[in-house]
Queue: 3 jobs
Job 1
Amino acid sequence: MCYSGENRFDFSEGMNVIIGDNNHGKSKLYDAFYWAMFDQCFDTGDKKWMPTRHFGKSIISDKAVHEAENGTMVHAIVRVTFKNTDKDQAYTIERKLTAVKRDDEVTADKESEETVTFKEFGFNQGKEITNSAEIEMLKKRILPDNIRPYMWFQGEQVESIIDFGQTSSLTQAINVLSNITRFDQVYALAESLDKSAKDEFQRKSRSFSKDKDKSDELEIKRNQILERLDLLTRDELSKRDTLGNADEDAQRLMSQFEDASRMRDLDSKQRSAERGLDEVSEDEKQERIDLHKKMFTHQWVLKGTEHLLKEYNLKYAKYEQSRLNKMAEVQARLLIENEMLQEIQTRLPINVPEPMYVEQMLEQEKCLVCSREAKKGTEAWESIKQLLDRTTANAREVEEEALSKHDFSADFKKLQQNGYSMDRVILRIDDDIKKTFQQLKRLGKRRKSYAEDLLRITGEMNSMKAGTSLDPTKAKNIVNELQDKQDLMKRFQIDLGRTERSIEQLKEQLRGIEKELGSLVSGELPAYLEEKKKVLENFSIVAKSTRDRVFYRLVKQLEEEANKHYQEMMQDNQGVRGIIKLVESTKGNYMPRLVDENESPLMQLNTGNIILIKLATIMAIISARQGSRDTDLYTLITDAPMSVFGEDYTIGFCKTVSRVYRQSIIMSKEFYKNEKLLRELLDSPDIKRGKIYKITPSIPDADRTNRKSLTTQIKALN
Amino acid sequence: MNKEQILRAFLEDELFTEQGLLKEGEAEKFKWTDPRKIKLIEVLRLSIDGVMSSETEGVSSMKINKYLNG
């Protein structure tokens, strides 16, 4: 517990506000009221009110527990004084929990102690009230049970205070407004009297029958029909119930359908955009990789080399010409040389032997012509050899020159042929590059478009998620569930129609039997009996229609009041307006719808709207009785009622509260950081202010390592 | 709502004018203590009385039956 030492809040008529951030002790203060009155605190984990023993020592200040010496007692005490200024009287309810510290262990009592005192102003001493019945009565006067849920509540409980899904929820609210239960009781009595009068009449009719057997037989038939009628009526009710539930579910789903279906479409678009983006990005990536490959695969590397082929052709032609010239030259020379060689050979002396003999001479190192020796290496041997070498050497030299030294022709020709084949490709390169870049540009554009779509869709999706508390899975489920519910309703409507027709047929049969039974009556039935039957039948009709009419009128009254508050709370907000309409469902309970001026439903009911409608309805229950003693005397105490809707509604809510409740105590964090709102709260002439307090912890949350020295500072702002 | 207001709410039902039990505008002026000429109104009075005084349904039924049988 963050409150330590003595902390005092004085509240006056009007709207009293306790301002504090999260974890500053607002809820603990709210708990303190509830604890003092009802010996219960709110368990935030279980979201339930639990008795003192459930919380034990955690109710006591951590600082007090820490500072207590072993063997001493520590207490948590809450004292709430209710003043009746008209009578100069005050009642004080004090609740106290004691704990003992031993060996640094703190043990709290299981039960708290309650002391109630009554004091008249001007007298020093109060009188303690010890009679528990008197205390209970006093508490009921301070806050009657039927009003309690609408006067003391936490923001997060608003949803369940008026649960439009429960048939009894609005009836309970209507009960606070009126004595509708009285009408229900009268109707129950009327129904029972009507039935017993009819039975009595039938019994009497049978005793006056001229044909007893026939009457008995008809009576048996009548009872059988009544039994079947009872079964079918119950079946009809059960079907109506199922249909009503399905209708409520469908309505609930329908209110989310527009958002859900939009989210489902967005989800599908998002997936499609993601897929498209992936595909296009992949294509673009591949195209960029191919772009580099195309330097070679599409011969882009040859771009701008068209002139080289021409230059090459020129050079090649020149080369070819030169080669041909050279060939011709060589051929001519060879021709000359060969001719000369032939001439030399033909001019050799007769006694000069054939080369084979010259070779033989070289081998034998002897001239076979003159028989002189010619040793190898000698001048004579070299001279013989020269005879042999001269003819062959001259012929080889010409051959070599012609074959190897200048013959690149084949390669050059091949190159030229290659050049010709590339020529067409080179001519198409520019076009190819242009097309490739156009394709890249197209892909880039498509990627950008997909990325933009994706960004837009994701943005829309995120804002929808934030505004509707839906996600794609939920949205898909809602759409599917609604379809299922609508199918179910169609089936049940057909089924219900069949049951209704059967009931109608049985009623027709019953009327026939009763007529027949009547015709068997001989003599006159006592007049009073006929009259009694008629009076009680009318009583039943009047009781039913009056109950329905009164209830409907109260619903309309509630609707009218709720609308006043709703419009007032919405005044600073530009969002969805609409008019609250409480529409009766097939199940018989009333569901809120937000409609436009033409009574066409507005579908965008988010959690904030629903809470506002519920708060407006809660206020309507109180304001519809304004001026009556019942509601004027009670104080609204609520913790964080504005936390579920935006700050746009805060001032509107405060104005409405200060108009509806004579005294209210509201714990709020909305004014803690928003200076503008705080100024408006402190200055607005439309808010009837009580006391405004700001509470802050002695050690900020962020700097707190433990709660051993934690206290709460209270500052009055007005 | 007091007894009279509850009774008036019942008397506003169109059945009363349709069956000629009350004239137009008569219901809203009707007083709890007005003469008890119409049996249906008396039955309503008895049942409202019973409900307001937290009588059991059985007791109220008995009273009404006794009245109508008499």
Job 2
Amino acid sequence: MTDDSVLELRGVEKLYGETRVLGPIDFTVQKGELLTLLGPSGCGKTTTLHIIAGLVEPTVGTVTMSGRDVTNLEPPHRDMGLVFQNYALFPHKTVFDNVAFGLRMRRVGREEIRERVMRVLDVVGLPGVEQRQPHQLSGGQRQRVAVARAVVIEPQVLLLDEPLSNLDALLRKRMRLELRDIQQRLGITTVFVTHDQDEAFEMSDRVILMNRGRIEQLGSPEDLYDRPESRFAAEFIGETNLIDGKVTKANGTTVSIAVTGGAEFQAPLTNGAGAVGQEVYLMVRPERVEIARERPADAAAIGARVTKRVFSGDMLALTLTSADGLEIVSRKPSVSRYRDLEEGSDVWMMLEECRMLPRDDTAVAR
Amino acid sequence: MSGERAFSRLLLAPITLVYLLFLIAPISFFLAMSLFRYDAFELYIPTLTGENFARLVTDGYYRDIILRTLKIAFLTAAFSLLLGYPLAYFLARTKTIWRGVLMFLVIAPLMSGVIVRTYGWIILLGSEGALNRALLWTGVIAEPLKLLNTEGAVLVALVHILMPYMVFPLFSSLASQDPDVERAAGTLGAGRIRTFFEVTLPLSKAGIAMGSALVFTLAAGAVVTPALLGGKNVQMLGQQIYDLVLSTLNWPLASAIAFVLVACQFVIIGLYFRTGKAKAGVV
């Protein structure tokens, strides 16, 4: 445990009877960082958050906050602020009384409560609503009140349980940046739970990708996108081409992978896989599939035909099929050099930044 | 759209007719009757007079009955609330098999008639009853206690008989609370007791008002239970109306008493709707 870690989970597991819903999982959260638990529903991310908050007791393992074991502490004795998915505001109390609640429980003086509530409402961009009832507020305003109520007590850790999922698409995008801004201004250590990859990427310092109760991969958004370590990680985050292939050469740091039709591609060695003869996946992100009209100097270019063209405004998705039946999707900005590509156009494709992924892995259930 | 509305109005026609014939008409009838003059031979003489109401205020006998009825109805509601709230709370929060078992026990009394249940209490409370025998046998008392024909007996039985009317509104308002709201109070530093008084109790206000209004009005109008368990010692308004209509044949006075009873009940229901309206906006 480093000096900067505020929260640490070690060997945490949750079993309901014989059914293991979580773990074992281990991770630490550094002071001031925003760490996201990302994954499909049922992956254990909310259970993890509830274990941190003290709402669920882990079957095994410990939760440590700033060096103190809090595993068996009830929620009121943990120093955490939790923002619920449905906000869980007190419907019978005014905005002021909602936000003041945690301070009253801590026996803060009236004057100070007043001052701190007003200040935090200002921080979340809601001045002047303190006398309203929650039902008189819009969804976005309620969300801010919930954040204000959780941060006004200046908890060591702020926990956010899918706080944006009940907002409409436009507001959700704006609140992402705003939440991140509030979090950074207050410098508050935060654990954020979401199933939305865009949210996770735009807001987080680090992301934990979870699957079936386990940590699939932990890293910065760039790590997860550029260097997925499993088929699940590659498919859950962003779009991806997965091509069946076989390792033909291995030389320390890179491998050669042969795919349908015999074309070979270079990829860096990933987590242990890569013995010669091994069946693997070749992975390439669609925006990293380059397209040329004329045969390029690059020897690895493969001749192909556009077999499908989907226009979505800013982007074009082009399905390219080689003479050998290799089918790869390329995503390109809809600028003139790509826009006049039609179904049936003959092109050359070049696969850049290929990755190798092991086969013994499950597909992501979407 | 208008066809749909016409259809829903048509559906309301039978119940409207029933209410008009059997609620509005009788109430209007006894309201008018309460203002008529009593006559031993004619039953009543249709000349307007306030003497029936005056008698309820000036005649100590009737005044006592009115006050006793209000007191017993109030106490019944209060005790039902105190005893029913923990039960409703448990029912609303438990996920175990107890929920089904206790729910059945709460409903079960409704399946037997009020007279059966009242006789049950007579068996328990009589001077030869189970309770007295047990106390005599254990030596706690030397002489049988006089339990029947007391206000206490009426109160205990009314609380028992009317308990489901308290528990169900409380249960439904407690069960419909978002459990995350209590959890939120916990994460903000409130212990279980603080959470109850700050969050759970105020959020169940509608259930408290509904249950109390129901139990109060039903207790104030009770006839059989006070008659059998209270006897002549514990006269309540319901029996008085019954006696005046069937034995004394003083219909105008009976109507005046009925009017007082209905007025009390309307006040209570009115109070309920005021709290209900305040709640309705909160979702």
Job 3
Amino acid sequence: MLKKLKIIIKILFIYPIIIVSANNSMATEGLDLLKNKWSFEGLFGTFNRASLRRGYQVYNEVCSGCHSIKLLSYRNLSEKGGPEFSREDSKNIATSFEVIDGPNSEGEMFARPGRLSDKFVKPYPNVQAAEAANGGAYPPDMSVLAKARKDGANYIYSILLGYEDPPEGFELDEGVYYNKYMPGHNIKMPNVLFDGLLDYADGTEATTQQMAKDITAFLTWASEPSLEARHKIGFKVILYLIILAFVVHLSLKRLWSRIESK
Amino acid sequence: MSTSYTILVMIIALLILFLYLSWVFVSIKVANKEQNEENTERRYFLFTASYALGAVAVGAAAWPLIDQMNPDASVKALATIEVDISNISSGKTITVLWRGKPIFIRRRTQQEISKAQNVNLNELKDPQKDEDRVKKSEWLVMTGVCTHLGCVPLGDKGDFGGWFCPCHGSHYDTSGRIRKGPAPTNLEIPKYEFVDSNIIKIG
Amino acid sequence: MSEEKYIPKSKLGQWFDSRLPLLSLAHHLRDYPTPKNLNYWWTFGAILTFCLIAQIITGIVLAMHYVAHADLAFESVEHIMRDVNYGWLIRYFHANGSSMFFLAVYVHIFRGLYYGSYKSPREIIWIIGMLIYILMMATAFMGYVLPWGQMSFWAATVITNLFSAIPIVGDSIVGWLWGGYAVGNPTLTRFYSLHYLLPFLIFALVVLHIWALHIPGNTNPVGIDIKQPSKDTVPFSPYVAVKDLYALIIFLIITAGFVFFAPNILSHPDNYIKANQMVTPTHIVPEWYLLPFYAILRAVPDKLGGVVVMFASLFILMFLPWLDTSKVRSAVFRPLYKVFFWVLVVDVIVLGYMGAKPPEGLYLLIGRAATIYYFAHFILVMPILGFKEKTTPLPISISDPVLDSDTKITNHR
């Protein structure tokens, strides 16, 4: 009994050691990011639909001019676990964009309105065009951005709110901006969020902080559309396994009781 | 479709678990031989409960492994297509790809329509009225896959003014019905509807 | 093994069994006499077998959707995550499953180190186990390259470059591994092919591993030889089978915790950036289970030296049965060795931690100290301790009661 308890305790320590050391070992510069309490954090986290819809609006009106999100399809906007626009609305969003298709029977590429099955259109046809239009820096594709940075949601949120004047004596090159939370403090993206920048469709006041929160939620969903399903199924799986463990444990005791008595 | 898969998977999982556990169970019986069998009912209930819970767990674990072979979301997104038919002139056929197969959309001439409607059903291997094959008689929408062995028939060919399949010589008429050759049934009509007079939604 | 020949009950069974003795094999496995005092550290063999089969199944399923081409690999993994039914679940299970596989293998190896499982007559089991471990690391390394993220690409570059340290033939070997002048598409496709192949070699070795084990039978926590079968043993099924099953369920709960609630915590965020030959990540880090070897590699200032010492740290384990000179098998009765065992555990964890840090300053110093201790443990401590240590008295059998309660007789609990 004591031995088993020791084993359980050891296992309970391996978990946190791994998590703590994993978090620490990945730290590059230990920048203290702005932390927000996200609805999708934690074991039972879910997305806020309204926030995701506003976030889509921010992406569409602010970010999509430079950043592609090419692994997302328009149909994802109406699928479960995301902004859950109606299928009609998603379709209208898709048709509002022009997609290059082809070649047609004349061998030419042609433009047509987008469909649900299409991927999000890109602002630039390729990486080189994107770099050329942005002073040599490529605005990264945002499909998995929230997973490609440590503590991705807080990272994105911090960068967006981290623009400020450089401290005394800090040298900035032409076309480079100072950002408090960017590793190295140099960022080629200018500040893009200002109060009242856009009119939210649901009437929420579009403050810089609100927009930063909404776009962060949207990008987190874009990186992990299965997050809600994962949490839901995970809860059921672990609960079930615990019940199963209990029943099997009883069976084990019952079986081995014979050996004790022999 | 998914319910039958779930049932199939549960049956297989239960079968495998039953085989393993009966092996275990037999061992228990063997171990029991010298023992007084006290609390038999409670013991067997406990074991049965374990088996049942275990079987459900195995089935639940196996289901995603089976379901992943079903069409994925990107394939299902292309399950329905919309085709603009406004540019098709009379007597012309266009071919579109739907679910990986060619679909013939033909704007039939009056001559072709009359010919199709006046055929004696007794002459047909697969009797079907032309009216039952089209929604608007001017528009013939059908799957361009020969019902013999799957080749794509060629249009404006054959002895019946319709299509001819070069692989084994099946002839289809102006309604896409099999008239001569080894194909057993008429060219299949997919599920479709007119969204408006210019657009057909297939699937 | 002393067993009477098994006669199947049915005529059909007898006909089949006399031609291919599968029923006899099943009977042997069912009744296989197992010491009744095995504790939960012994369940990891079964857990590992499950892990291998689970990885093979999830891997084969992933292979139905993955595309092994440098231009498409990253996108195909995202296609699995987003479009394939339960693709996210299967992918996360496979990725975290490999971490759990290594966690279990380390527990299994350290169990062997503590209880002297490698000692005569089980040397071959141990050596086959080491071969399995090496193949596991090769498989995991190649598997990590497949998503073609930044870490995939650059870890492949760094590790394959190691071979250039070999004098004369080094550069040719590297070019041969790469299939080109740098890591690229040919590297990806051959790694995919080998990643698919190696697990089946591992499976074959596991069969040999278990076969070799069944000749002398399991050792046990007190390390004394017992007659099998006897009153000291129980038939494998149901007693040990159900115990292994129980341990497996607990193991799966931990796995589910990672898969469903922290699926990316053990991997590196940089691997969600598509591979770019022009940009090297600031810190190239392998997966956690390779970190101790990474630390040893970087502890040595010389390139070839680092490679040699790293491989030496692996191969020295093969000689363990002969490096350990103690007549007593289990650490339960070796008070001094017990201490050094735990020092080794801490040492390996420290090495792992250093492997994730940049090799400079204090980190490098600690890494070097830990490397030196690692080798000292096997080359100096174990041989010397075998001769010098005063061991505590062994019990007569595992069933008989013991007079001195300090000598911990472990029973099945």
